[in-house]
Amino acid sequence: MNSVPPRKRASNQAFRLLIGGVTGIVAGALIEWILSQYSGTTGYGLLHLCAAFLLFASWAMLLLVKEKPPEAESLKESDIAAQGGVITALKGYFAAGPLRRSRSCFVGALFFMHAFSLILPFYAVTLLTRLDQPKSFLGILAMWQMGGQSVGNLVAAVVGDRWGGRVTFGFGLIAVCVTVSVAPFVFDILYAQIVYAVFAMSVIVMLIGKDTLLMELSPKKGQSSYLAGMAMTTMISMVVYGGVAQAMWTQLGGFNALAATVVVLCVVAVGFLYFVEDPRSPRINPLLAIRRGILRVFR
Fold this sequence. Notes:
Layout: H1 9-37, H2 40-62, H3 85-93, H4 100-113, H5 123-130, H6 137-163, H7 165-182, H8 189-216, H9 223-251, H10 255-274, H11 286-298
Helix pairs in contact: 1-2, 1-6, 1-8, 3-9, 4-9, 4-10, 6-7, 6-8, 7-8, 7-10, 7-11
């Protein structure tokens, strides 16, 4: 947050994820080549050496990062002491002030947006069974997923830098609702691949928007504790939805019930997001901003 210009946070997040995906592809090819040439302990030892070398290279690059020092200013109601831990950070985060409602509603949106994870373990398997395809079809879906995520990174970079995290978050949430709502009705192989790719794109846009808005709503002091508190909210939501997914998959109708639940809960997340004031332009509704952007493109 202190080393990237505020208006470039979304594209920074997007390009980091894009580079990570490309790095993962290269790493997979390297792993396959090393283990095919050197089996057993020797191969795994070489992989450990490669990992160690790249980690040291990452550390060396980190030394070149210049972090902007925080501006010296008096504490406001929304600021928190640098020391005090996560509990103190959360108390300061929800303290009375102009951003109290926005921050509280953001936490609600953060919790309910993770409902998308309900279908993640079952989506590809459901398509595999429904379309009566061999297990190799999972690899094809994975390629479509990577393509969708790459496009999502680029979309989030453009939308996020231009309109901020709130609009990007809202756009991703709505896109997830749309793509998940059509998933139970897909019975064609090509359509299934396209819908799966668009779903992956929507999730990436939503996540980048969420992370950008999270940084935009950050207090000036105690940012590490603040981020830890938000990560704790994410962890709790993932645990809750993991249990809900298991119960619904086995007891309440399988994939279709999960998809319907995801749509409903993501709509709830959009409702919470509606009451979050945009740190860049508080008076602009996210749907209105998206509409204006589309009109600008066609003009």
